[in-house]
Design brief:
homodimer, alpha/beta, Metallo-beta-lactamase, Chain A, Oxidized Rhodanese, domain 1, six-stranded mixed beta sheet, elongated
């Protein structure tokens, strides 16, 4: 793998979907392949924490088993949405066709049209041919089904045998799904061991396999396909509401955080909970005006002392133990809780007022 | 990543455990880090299909949340079992200490003693420093708990801050667990963003966090720790019984297969089910003596015609559609079913008798 390539594989456990983040470490330009609606906060926070600039959400096809996060991410990052001209997805910022390249920094993902699971299925090949993102065309020891949308086992056979199996044997296959804890394969492995199309399977064998699978109707299809044809744009055309009680961000570790400047400017509207130890407070007498002090080791037993009515902002020395306080309060069913990013160290560092 | 390195990340969904297979493509020598008992067939079949020679199962520590597959894999592959001298695991083929190297082909994994979650925790660093396998010491935006076995938050703080955070920022962190679909991090990311020990967290902050987590008792601990102290050796000291009805192997795709030579030599003891289409049979009149013929597209409706009493061996032209027949029969609750590897093509190729 090229040292300047940043690569992350992400998994959505509900739908069994893999999302891939690729970025050029030098320029910071990034692309996200096959994002998932429910994971847009996770993916957005990762992009933020890695200080990347998302330039495109690439779809391998119009999915039938989950809704894409592309529209949400576009509206948070100004990225483009790209997919095959034949995917039916509308609106698209970039319609891609066989042979097109999607650049990010000094890298590019080349489009290989691989119809069969749907007419608009494409695979994305990294320009050094070290990795291919095959969507639902080629899975690890499997392949996408061909019995709905525009599925065609014959087309899928030719896409896999003539285009994907023509790639180098060492090319790593990253599919859109796996359900058995496998994260990647290679072209060489699938050529030898794919139980549907590997080894000496011919078109009759493969089509005979695919046409006799008798799979149940995919349970998300009637929801996912209409939503994905709109690139994951919600029915009400609205971005998920940001909380009114504070301008929170979600970290990749899943914590709601707020910047200390905002807290300092809105002290009347919030309740600050300082969870430093008594020894720390004794040593460092500065406090935030109006803050309640309950040391973290006592908080579990004293949760009912934290007043309701105002959003709670948790703080400690460096913003770590206050995450525990955030977790404890959230576990009691309170929604309006956030951790003050960076704790007192950042509060002091920004010259914010103490009493 | 070095082009000669073969790398696979595998996941056990029940325990949320990552297992790692690393191999030198040139020599074929492989090591497996933190295998899982219930996944030993998956991992063994992958090693077989990749034609690798497993030389060691490396344990990062004595796990409390799942049982290792090391003992089973040792008895199937003759690999060594390696872990820290301080892990308490007995018997070990190789006791490793800080600074030791575990070679596989032209690669090596260097041992970094990282106590804290347990006394015997080690991390394994690839010799080019591109990847580190951190076990339960450093997780993605988290770390192992320190409230059981020989847990010490202070020791863990020093292991992470002084040893792991001293590695290059780009070094990829592969942990033993994740529960949110994240597959890797980097040292640089965790130094900046780990919500327990990243940023400006000092020892007091970190220890204060770890000592106030009040986590529930780990539900597998009382089963897993005693089993792992024996490297995953089953209570009856026995390998899982291999089926008596046929010398089957499990493929990485999860299919039970049997070699055609064995079927040819044991025709009286098995029932061969040929699922080729009528057109194929008409064209290619050769049959296996005594075989029943039900075309794959009719099998679903005619399953009750397949006699019980003898194990069923499924076959078609190339051994693909017969996997569907295998699946169909297994779904009816029959256990003694296997696919004949390679189908008629291999049967003919090996000169086995037809009628």
């Amino acid at each position: 793998m090229n040292d300047n390539l940043l690569f992350k594989q992400l998994y959505d456990q509900t739908s069994g979907t893999y999302t891939y983040l690729l970025a050029d470490k030098v320029s910071g330009q990034a692309v996200l392949i096959d994002s998932v609606f429910e994971q847009h906060n996770r993916d957005y926070s990762l992009i933020q924490e890695l200080e990347l600039s998302l330039i495109a959400c690439l779809e391998t096809h119009c999915h039938a088993d989950h809704v894409t996060g592309a529209w949400l991410l576009k509206h948070r990052t100004n990225c483009q949405i790209a997919a095959s001209t034949d995917s039916g997805i509308d609106p698209l910022d970039k319609s891609v066709s066989h042979g097109d390249e999607n650049s990010f920094g000094s890298f590019a993902l080349k489009v290989i049209a691989t119809p069969g699971h749907t007419d608009g299925c494409v695979s994305y090949l990294l320009n050094d041919q070290s990795m291919v993102f095959t969507g639902d065309t080629l899975l690890i020891r499997g392949c996408g089904r061909t019995d709905f949308q525009q599925g065609s086992a014959n087309k899928l056979y030719h896409s896999i045998k003539e285009l994907l199996f023509a790639l180098p044997d060492d090319c790593i296959v990253f599919p859109a799904h796996d359900y058995a804890g496998r994260t990647s394969s290679t072209i060489g492995e699938e050529k030898r061991h794919n139980p549907r199309i590997g080894g000496q399977a011919n078109e009759t064998d493969f089509v005979g396999f695919m046409e006799n699978m008798n799979l149940p109707h995919p349970k998300q299809l009637d929801i996912a396909v209409p939503a994905n044809l709109k690139a994951g744009k919600p029915d009400d055309d609205e971005l998920p509401r940001t909380p009114r009680w504070a301008p929170v961000t979600t970290t990749y570790s899943g914590v709601l955080e707020v910047a200390p400047e905002w807290v300092a400017a809105n002290l009347n509207g919030v309740h600050v909970l300082d969870v430093r130890t008594q020894a720390e407070i004794d040593e460092e007498s500065a406090q935030i005006e109006g803050a309640q002090h309950i040391p973290i080791d006592k908080l579990g037993a004293r949760l009912d002392e934290v007043p309701t009515g105002k959003p709670v902002m948790t703080i400690c020395r460096s913003g770590k133990r206050s995450v525990l306080a955030f977790n404890l309060l959230r576990q009691t069913g309170r929604d309006e809780v956030a951790n003050i990013n960076g704790g007192f160290l950042r509060w002091y560092g920004e010259g914010l007022p103490t009493s």
